Amino acid sequence: MDFARMAEELTFDLDDFLPLVRLFLEVSAEDLDRLDEAYLLQDLSLAATAAHSIKGAAANLGFGELAATAAEIEKKARLGDASPILAGSESLRAGLAAIRREL
Prior knowledge:
Layout: H1 3-9, H2 14-41, H3 44-61, H4 64-78, H5 83-102
Helix pairs in contact: 1-2, 2-3, 2-5, 3-4, 4-5
């Protein structure tokens, strides 16, 4: 993962971008916990809210694949479909772990 290129595309210095990525990882981990809880409770409103949070932050930082996964979860949850939550959550966790490894 080329954090320097990502920072440049967003007109950030790398030293300013990396703390944002770390914050994103922290907050997204909390959102993923809420997403898992939502799945267990079948609370689609909570699932949509958690996925929306991840989607926005991921998109703003240039993590398009994560944003797309979260967007799909959000969309389906708002339509009353819980089916993508579990697999999507696992995919998001894997993506966050990959980012964490690269830091």
